[in-house]
Amino acid sequence: MTSVAEMKAIAGPSEIMEVSMGPHHPSTHGVFRMDVRLEGERVVRLKPVFGYLHRNHEKIAEHGAYLAAIPYTDRLDYLCSMTNNWGYVLAVEKLAGLQVPERAEYIRVIVAELTRFQNHAGLIGFLLQDMGASGTPLMYAFREREKILDLFESLSGARMMCNYMRFGGVRVDCSAEWLDEVRRLVATLPRFLGEFEALLRSNEILMARTQGVGVLPRELAINAGVTGPMLRASGVNYDIRKVDKYGIYDRFDFRVPLGEHGDVYDRYMMRLLEMAETVKILEQALRNIPAGPVMDPKAKLRGLRPKVGEAYGRIESPKGELGFFLISDGSTIPYRYRVRPPSMINLTVLEDMCLGQNIADVVITLGSVDIVLGEVDR
Amino acid sequence: MSDLLNAEEVKAQIEAGVPGSHVTVIPNGSPSGQHSLLLDNEHAFAVASFLRDHPALRLDYCSLVTGVDWLDTETTEKIRVKKVVDGVETEAEETRKTKVPGYLEAVYHLFSIEKKHGPVILRMRTANRTGQTQLPSLTPVWRSCEFQEREAFDLYGIVFVGHPDLRRILMWDGFADFPMRKDYHPPADGVPVAEVHA
């Protein structure tokens, strides 16, 4: 019998094959395409192609009042509308110099951390689904996500398109019953995490599929502007909640988990560990939330006219640095409205992570980036 | 810009570190107080490398790249002119209009992951909006500019010289216009958009 090496020697170098993965590939989380060149099963070139969902979000926002852009931000990363709202209102608050009452800051932290939790749980579910763990982990994650979305619905009236935050505060106050509901839910989250971890952490197949796959070196991660859990999986300590301390994040005691290898396994673990830290923040916020107003009385929602100038506001969204850059020309409509989409910029290094890997690993490497096409394409 | 990094200070450091470069501080009137630095296009690349590698600044992370469109503007000023009407010298008021050509602007927000400070904001301006829309690409300095400069090219028509892969990114390849420009209006319903056919 001839060995594989001998067969290769007889057949000569294999031909390069071009494969168009997507835009309707189930692993692409929507409409995303990769132009892949393969030598056998090995990737020798990979170019991401996107824009299928492009609706010129920025142009729309440059045609409406400052307030009118908030519901559109829900539709960027449609899994995390609360953090999208926050990024935008933070930029407007910087531009117009608005203050946020303390109770509103606490509510913002609570909803943002709940958003982070359900995003990370969902991401792990999808990633394992891509690896062939069909159904079970995803359903576990979605069971928890469902409870969080129910809370969002009772607070804001919508499960996913929350449209909840306003510059100068939040739209409506939460009730004491709602806070009790959140406390009850948060008390069950550590148990869910333990269960989720026990199910998968030391799973041999998971480790074999993810360790050493899709490695992103530290220097490249920084230079390519990668942010969020993906950057920290490569061992870079940079969390905007700690660096900028926006809102009231300086009041919470939490740690920033760091990876060592920058592979798919580290990126997966990063999400699990961050969920545990999120639970810690939630517990502290729910313990200390004060009574009081939730809107700055000076904030003028309709017809806000910031002074001529510009501002860049950024937050640590579940996917990375979500920033909004606004230029005001003194009118009620932003002259320039720009979103810094974390998941689009994180895709810059997709080719670098996939070169030399098998085509099957492209799917899980993409899964570990955590993209949402509503945000990539805008 | 954070307290640590005063705009004037950074300007002085750049002008000392990159000989021949010319930096103008663009003040920002909003409460955010984020002032920016306008670079001359000729030295912009050298300035970017200088800022990235400077041991005290270490702006190793370019967060946001974007285009801004500033339209042609017209300024009117009233001037007094002396006229001789029927042999009598009189003073009359005349309005004189001057056209200020518009330009496209690329804005870069830099942070330092190592030193945890920022932002330092850089700006570059094209000569006009129509023929001369070239700017040096900073992608060789920061890879994070790769997609965002492509986007500014796609939506604003800024041509980044030195970009390794300058193609449209959100619009399709045959699309002819630049949709984020202030004077772009989408065609009416049923009218096809302008396309270039190779």
What is the alpha-carbon Rg of chain B in Å? Answer: 22 Å
CATH topology of chain A: Cytochrome-c3 Hydrogenase, chain B
* Beta-strand content estimate of chain B: 25-35%
Number of strands of chain B: 9
Using only CA atoms, what is the Rg of chain A?
22 Å
Question: How many discrete structural domains of chain A?
Answer: 1
Q: Which class of secondary structure composition applies to the elements of chain A?
A: alpha+beta
CATH class of one domain in chain B: Alpha Beta
Number of strands of chain A: 8
* CATH homologous superfamily label of one domain in chain B: NADH:ubiquinone oxidoreductase Nqo5 subunit
Can you describe what's shown?
The complex is a heterodimer of chains A (378) and B (198). Chain A has 378 residues and is an alpha+beta fold. Chain A has a single domain, classed as Cytochrome-c3 Hydrogenase, chain B (Orthogonal Bundle). Chain A has helices at residues 4-11, 57-61, 70-74, 81-96, 102-131, 136-156, 176-200, 204-210, 218-223, 229-233, 240-243, 264-288, 342-346, 350-354, 359-369, 373-377; strands spanning 16-21, 33-39, 42-49, 165-166, 169-170, 309-317, 320-328, 336-340. Chain A has a three-stranded antiparallel beta sheet. In chain A, helix 5 runs antiparallel to helix 12. With 198 residues, chain B is α/β, with parallel strands linked by helices. Chain B has a domain at 7-70 and 103-161: NADH:ubiquinone oxidoreductase Nqo5 subunit (Beta Polymerase, domain 2, 2-Layer Sandwich), CATH 3.30.460. Helix content of chain B is 17%, strand content 35%. Chain B has helices spanning 7-17, 44-53, 145-156; strands spanning 23-26, 36-39, 61-70, 73-85, 88-100, 103-112, 117-125, 134-136, 159-161. In chain B, the strands form three sheets. A five-stranded mixed beta sheet of chain B has the order 1-2-7-6-3, covered by helices on one side. The longest helix of chain B has 12 residues, at 145-156. Chain B is flat, with a radius of gyration of 22 Å. The model of chain B has no long low-confidence stretch (mean pLDDT 84). The A-B interface holds A 50-51, 54, 56, 58-59, 94-97, 220, 222-227, 236, 238, 243, 306-312, 314, 321, 323, 325, 327-328, 336, 338, 340, 344-345, 347-349, 377-378 and B 28-32, 34, 36, 60-64, 66, 68, 107, 109, 113, 116, 119, 121, 142-148, 155, 168-172, 179-180.
